[in-house]
């Protein structure tokens, strides 16, 4: 079997560059959806169900894109055509989302924004899945960890920019208040426009810079013919086993972050600004500050990602993964007790450590054991372990909010922390990662 060539740093960064713009868009959507829905009239009981749109988009679209991109060979490549189409659609939907009122003559405001939210996340998923598979397709086994680490670094930088954009625009004088019913703050609108421009620049740079391996080289590099001769039932059982074990950790980790995304803005407004009025200045200041907190944990995750390979060698991957989730749980719980907006930056350090591992380890596990010929399909299936917990959160969120959190949005942070504790314990059920110290 021929070996994939070792790639230069520039080549690895080019493969992943579009992930920067992608994550800016995704972070803006995830950080501001509750804010937008509330500004347009949704109440706290409706938010979890309305938040079903993003994970449903991922559940439906990513496995389909993964399956078909595995079978796609064009003169432009295998994954790049999907990245290109997804990029154009994402930019268009990012422009449309803050202007959902244009559909109000046909649908209600809430139906309009939910419809647009679904297709915005759908476009993002068309782009995301091929990027995950592109690293697996292009990068030598020796550089796999580096490839996904660069992707994580760019994703977290994108998370920082996406989180801080509305706050930065407020500082330079753009209005952060809702001017009229059925509209959202100008800071949010312009943030979405800027993100649309960035994803076009970064993702198209990847599209025009990366030359995927032609079919004959890809088959040679990945020993496809030998793969076909091996027992597919054994290979399938091994991947399914790993996916099941990883999915247990993913269930608790992503459910915890889903709760943060849905309830943090309301929780901060309630706890620090003493308001629940989505049109008030205090509520929009709380929403901006939640963006700052999200930026903080993205900064930490970016920095921590550089040290994951060394730390995993020193302490063992399972110990590192479990410890990161446990520390993140402590950070989430402490948000309930802190009553100063600036002190809330400190627990975001802990949350960022957890986030770095959540974005890296599951993909590394599956990439190392999944057949190259079906990599896109299995990456799509792995995405189900990300979106299924969010769907569960959407369906049960209001019950948890009313019955376990006592209708307190800020107490939902405690629930999220406990879920990360359970996720940390579940790490030791995974048998396909080594815990040996080196």
UniProtKB/TrEMBL annotation:
Principal localization?
membrane
- InterPro entries from the UniProt entry: MFS, MFS_dom, MFS_trans_sf
Provide the topology term for how it sits in the membrane.
Multi-pass membrane protein
- Keyword terms, alphabetized: Membrane, Transmembrane, Transmembrane helix, Transport
Localization, per the record, is:
Membrane
| TM spans (from-to) | 12-31, 51-68, 80-101, 107-127, 148-170, 190-208, 242-264, 289-308, 320-338, 344-365, 377-401, 407-430
Q: What is this protein called?
A: Maltose/moltooligosaccharide transporter
Protein's organism: Dysgonomonas macrotermitis
């Amino acid at each position: 079997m021929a070996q994939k060539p070792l790639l230069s740093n520039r080549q690895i960064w080019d493969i992943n560059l579009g992930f920067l713009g992608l994550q800016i868009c995704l972070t803006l959507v995830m950080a501001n959806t509750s804010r937008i829905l509330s500004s347009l009239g949704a109440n706290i009981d409706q938010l979890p169900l309305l938040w079903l749109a993003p994970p449903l988009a991922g559940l439906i679209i990513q496995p389909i894109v993964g399956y078909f991109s595995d079978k796609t060979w064009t003169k432009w490549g295998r994954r790049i055509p999907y990245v290109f189409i997804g990029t154009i659609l994402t930019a268009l939907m990012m422009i449309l989302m803050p202007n959902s009122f244009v559909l109000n003559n046909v649908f209600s405001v809430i139906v309009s924004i939910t419809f647009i939210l679904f297709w915005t996340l759908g476009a993002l998923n068309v782009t995301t899945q091929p990027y995950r598979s592109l690293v697996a397709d292009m990068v030598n086994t020796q550089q796999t960890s580096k490839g996904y680490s660069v992707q994580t670094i760019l994703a977290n930088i994108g998370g920082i920019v996406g989180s801080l954009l509305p706050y930065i625009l407020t500082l330079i004088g753009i209005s952060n208040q809702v001017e009229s019913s059925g509209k959202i703050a100008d800071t949010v609108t312009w943030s979405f426009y800027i993100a649309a421009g960035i994803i076009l620049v970064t993702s198209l740079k990847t599209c025009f810079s990366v030359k995927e391996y032609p079919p004959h080289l890809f088959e040679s590099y990945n020993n496809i013919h030998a793969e076909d001769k091996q027992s597919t039932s054994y290979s399938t059982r091994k991947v399914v086993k790993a996916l099941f074990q990883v999915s247990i950790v993913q269930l608790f980790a992503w459910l915890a972050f889903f709760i943060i995304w849905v309830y943090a803005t309301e929780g901060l407004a309630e706890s620090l600004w003493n308001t629940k009025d989505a049109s008030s200045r205090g509520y929009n200041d709380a929403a901006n500050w939640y963006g700052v907190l999200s930026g903080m944990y993205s900064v930490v995750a970016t920095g921590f990602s550089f040290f994951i390979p060394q730390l995993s060698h020193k302490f063992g991957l399972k110990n590192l993964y479990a410890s990161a989730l446990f520390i993140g749980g402590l950070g989430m719980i402490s948000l309930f007790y802190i009553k100063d907006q600036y002190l809330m930056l400190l627990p975001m350090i802990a949350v960022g450590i957890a986030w770095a591992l959540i974005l890296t380890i599951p993909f590394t596990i599956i990439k190392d054991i999944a057949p190259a010929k079906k990599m896109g399909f299995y990456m799509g299936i792995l995405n189900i372990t990300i979106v299924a917990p969010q769907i569960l959160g959407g369906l049960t969120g209001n019950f948890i909010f009313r019955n376990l959190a006592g209708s307190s949005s800020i107490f939902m942070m405690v629930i999220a922390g406990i879920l990360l504790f359970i996720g940390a314990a579940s790490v030791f059920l995974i048998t396909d990662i080594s815990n040996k110290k080196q």
